[in-house]
Amino acid sequence: MTVPQVTLNDGVQIPQLGYGVWRVPNDEVVAPVLTALETGYRHIDTAAVYRNEEGVGEALKQSGITRDEVFVTSKLWNDKHKAADAREAIETTLTKLGLDHLDLYLIHWPATAKYGDDYIEAWDALQQFRAEGLTRSIGVSNFNPEHLDKLNGAVPSLNQVERHPSFNRAELFGELKARGIALEAWSPLGNQRDPSDLDLPAVKQVAEQTGLSPAQVIIRWHLQTGDIVIPKSVTPSRIAENFDVFGVELSAEQVELLSGLDAGNRQGGDPLTQA
Question: Potential cystine with 18: which of 46, 170, 212, 230 (Cβ 3.0-4.6 Å)?
């Protein structure tokens, strides 16, 4: 099964469907990453603050899959925005992953509540890392337009943000599209806590109509609206289910129905207050 590729604004291609490992402990992450890779995922998303980069690296090593076949993302944490700290951070990340380069490196949060505009210095550092070949592409995570406006030089290739049907970020989505910045959805199923998007009547209705599970319906919505999406599970059957989404397409009416579910239901941190 071939996953569609999205071409970023720097020409780098990223698999539109990936596998995320947030909140998977380092000593438990090898098995699910191996399962994901065996299932067919070729895009793995981690971060320094997840504290599981070593385990992800071990899974990549054990998989036997060649480096150029797997797209690997990691992220710079908030207290490492100064240039020297950022360099130490990416070098540590590469060492833990056992890689000589990343495919995508993101500033995890603007973190202005605690660190002011230090993320601007971090962005300058990321541009240097790309020039040196430490990462193929650079982007941001959890940035609002006002944060993007302050960045110098290159336009981020991608902004990874919370997005799911009940928090669909239509205005931000449109703004990123106008700037040529891809949107990657974290918490794509909206199920960190109740209410879960998986239980929304409209989602269940589309699931019944299509024969898909509620999770598959939401992943299809992301894919068909143009998102890059990184669902996470440690359960092998769900890892496989989340990948098995290319046999059925939602109708335009079903996509529109799901896009109309926005309720401002933010379930994660707010970029304006996250420190």
Answer: 230
Domain that includes residue 27, residue range = 5-194+221-241
- Domains held by the chain: number: 1
Q: Decide if 260 is inside a domain.
A: no
Residue 155: inside a domain, yes or no? yes
CATH number for the domain that contains residue 188: 3.20.20.100
pLDDT tens across 162-172, in order? 999 999 999 99
Q: pLDDT (tens digit, 9 = 90+) per residue, 94-124? A: 999 999 999 999 999 999 999 999 999 999 9
Catalytic choice (50, 105, 115, 119): 50
pLDDT of 169: 95
Q: Are 20 and 231 in contact (CB under 8 A)?
A: yes
pLDDT of residue 131: 98
In a domain, 64, yes or no: yes
Is 179 part of a structural domain of the chain?
yes
Residue 115 annotated as catalytic: no
pLDDT above 70: residue 219: yes
